[in-house]
Amino acid sequence: MASYRKRSGGWRAEVAKLGVRDSQTFDTKAAAVAWATAREVEIASQNGKSRSTVAMTLSEALRRYKRDVSPTKAGQRWEALRLDNFDKSLEWVGELMSSITSDQIAQWRDSRLKTVQTSTVRREMTLLSSVFEIARTEWKACLVNPVRDTRRPSNMPHRERRVAQSEITALINRLGFVEGQPPTTMLQELAYAFLIAIETAMRQGEILGMTAKWVKLPERFVRLPKTKNGSSRNVPLSRRAGELLEPLYRGKGPDDRLFRLESGSADTLFRRIRDELKIDGLTFHDTRHEAITRLARKVDVLDLARITGHKDLKSLMVYYNATAAELAERLG
User: Fold this and answer.
1) Model confidence over 129-170: pLDDT tens digits?
2) Annotated active-site positions, please?
3) Residue 142 burial (CB < 10 Å; 0-12/13-18/19+)?
4) Global pTM?
5) Whole-Å CA distances, 208 to 42, 227, 240, 254
6) Residue 211 pairs with which residues in a beta bridge?
7) What are the residue boundaries of the structural domains of the chain, listed by start?
8) Are 288 and 205 in contact (CB under 8 A)?
9) CATH of the domain spanning 165-331, picked from 1.10.443.10, 3.20.20.140, 1.10.8.1000, 1.10.3720.10
10) Are 21 and 106 in contact (CB under 8 A)?
11) Which of 165, 222, 234, 244 is most exposed by smallest CB count within 10 Å?
């Protein structure tokens, strides 16, 4: 008989019948029950015989996933790096996928938690689970996904770092920002990207990847054809955002990028200047927290979600960090 457990993120159904074990997680208990019932019927119809699997090692699966699946995702580059790291570092990467257990996954998880942050381990477990899941459902290389049977470390408290106006001023002055003048150095480009991020809530990669044809200055929006969540979105521009984009847009052909700066170089430059100025703990991504909190004063929550590209309000709230003093001021 199937068993059901309430977990963060949904209901987990576990089936153990005629020597076959399987499990899945669903948003609702009803969906979990429906799957478990159908799965038990499937197992019974096979007279208790396990489904045959294709002999595939985890290493082979990682490489196939990198070749066939990762290119379809917006975060292909970073995902490919993580897959390569799995292939080099996992002790059981040479084992058949069908023989890898949740105990092995748990031991690896605990080892990783000693060297990297919880959020990193959660992201890595999500990717590893995706590899096992496609291997299970499409490549028939395993019967179960052992990552799904492994407890994930709890989320750390949400980051609430804001960007103070004094920090903005110090950064753009050090970066050599000149109002209204096209940037001539990479530091000046970083200053423009930083200010645009605070004004629009766009991600660093979205800003640095912009081409001139995406920017619609007369209509005051930027068209992002593909974003982190895989869909496109239009980002409305405040007057200030338009003023910041105009010097970058000026004289560019439709396919020309507005920035020469790449994300990897931008991160390195930002950290170097931040540390030089002794600004504690600030990251470029904190501009998204700052921008979303500022935009929340101007638009309602549904419009804000459309601007930022969040598909659910729970995710959006992670970035909304108004202080008690700010809320009190709005109350009057």
Assistant:
1) 999 999 999 999 998 899 998 999 887 667 778 899 999 999
2) 203, 228, 310, 319
3) buried
4) 0.62
5) 51, 13, 18, 15
6) 257
7) 3-45, 58-137, 165-331
8) no
9) 1.10.443.10
10) no
11) 165
